[in-house]
Amino acid sequence: MKIVNSIKDLKAYLAEVKRDNKKIGFVPTMGALHNGHLSLVQHCVKDNDVCVVSVFVNPTQFNDKHDLETYPRTLEADCALLESAGCDYVFAPSVEEMYPEPDTRIFDLGTVAEVMEGAKRPGHFNGVAQVVSKLFYIVEPDNAYFGEKDFQQIAVIRAMVRQLNIPVTINACPIVREDDGLALSSRNTRLTPEQRQKAPLIARTLKESTTFVPEKSVQEVIDYVVNTINNDPVMEVEYYEIVDGNTLESIKNWTDTDYPVGCITVYCGEVRLIDNIKY
């Protein structure tokens, strides 16, 4: 496994791979890797001849400076995990390498980037589109892999790929959970022992809510989820929306879509956790 810090070097290595007509798979990450990331790497290794993983905490997608500063950075441990998972190249650039000058591109990605996370974190998805498009131009992968925990992010990246005509297949991989149901996230390491004990309530409540469909209305299911989680003093729901899984527009009735997905963000203390479930 090679660890590469410069765009020029990575392009040179991958040019050789392309000359041999080998298929390149790519997993973009912000590091602090866990088994959820490793499942993406395993899919990537299985489907492609060469696996590239980027480890880069992208400043343009953080609208909260404190969140950027406290985001865990564990490159050495990440590289050890990636080597054991069969990764071929780790791309770990500096901020200066990725942004020698400010990226001023503004993306108009439609509704998928404006609702839920887009509304709560202005500029977040524009930053995601900036960095992922840059990474796609550098790596030129045949396949890219993203986890369904970031359900809205996948919709945004698909919209961006269509808009820019980037020839890459976006592969969405299932959420990986702890034994108690908590969706794996790099942010989980910031939970106190008490918060970590409480956090699985999110997944439990979402799963329970699926048993009410279609007898209860969409609004009744939303109210159930929000009230159940908010009843725990450690937890506070920022939003819970049930949307069409393709457009991400909120639905009012179960008959509005054949692909209803519930998307939630919960503050567990100061730690912001996201999850989703298909109905």
Question: Please, could you describe this protein's structure?
Answer:
With 279 residues, the protein is of the alpha/beta class. It folds into 2 domains: 2-173, HUPs (Rossmann fold), CATH 3.40.50; 186-278, Pantoate-beta-alanine ligase, C-terminal domain (Pantoate--beta-alanine Ligase, Chain: A,domain 2, 2-Layer Sandwich), CATH 3.30.1300. Helix content is 39%, strand content 20%. It is built from 11 helices and 9 strands. The chain has helices at residues 7-19, 35-47, 65-70, 75-84, 95-98, 117-120, 124-139, 151-164, 193-198, 201-209, 218-230, and strands at residues 2-4, 24-29, 50-55, 89-91, 143-147, 169-173, 235-244, 260-268, 271-278. Strand 2, helix 2 and strand 3 form a beta-alpha-beta unit. Helix 7 (124-139) crosses helix 8 and helix 10 runs antiparallel to helix 11. The protein is globular, with a radius of gyration of 19 Å. It starts with a strand and ends with a strand.
Throw out a few tags for this protein.
279 residues; three-stranded antiparallel sheet; alpha/beta; six-stranded parallel sheet; 2 domains; Rossmann fold
